[in-house]
Amino acid sequence: MSANEDQEMELEALRSIYEGDESFRELSPVSFQYRIGENGDPKAFLIEISWTETYPQTPPIISMNAFFNNTISSAVKQSILAKLQEAVELNLGTAMTYTLFEYAKDNKEQFMENHHPVNSATSISNIISVETPSIAPSSKKKDKKEQLSKAQKRKLADKTDHKGELPRGWNWVDVVKHLSKTGSKDDD
Fold it and tell me: pLDDT of 128-140, one tens digit each?
């Protein structure tokens, strides 16, 4: 199958999968945006994937240059793009746009764990784009990060509030118990 036939099939699949999904946007037949997170979510971000002429045999261009991402620091953007690049290398030669969007959705919390909103009047230097060289060395072994099971993620989510922070006082010492042990002996 030629690259164009692969692209046409993937385009049809993307259109049917994301039909009615407000987060998905087709900019052109070879360029797509997907918003990871809900509107108003401070940790939401936008990924843009553009296909090259020889995609999927060559990597797509992944970008986070959208104005929507202006509050995200360049370090966090670079980190997200690097993790997406790893997924690209694993899926090279296959239709991967859907896979990349889903990978980003599944790992949103991990991607944005170091996110602290920056002033929206950021400079042009925060505009970042990644193009993978056509020959990527894959001989290096990659360190695997610890993956949490669904039960572990659920337990962690139950301990935290909607912002991912532990509730106030989660590590306070039981003051009454402490004072009863260290109370003064002057009462005698």
Answer: 555 555 544 444 4
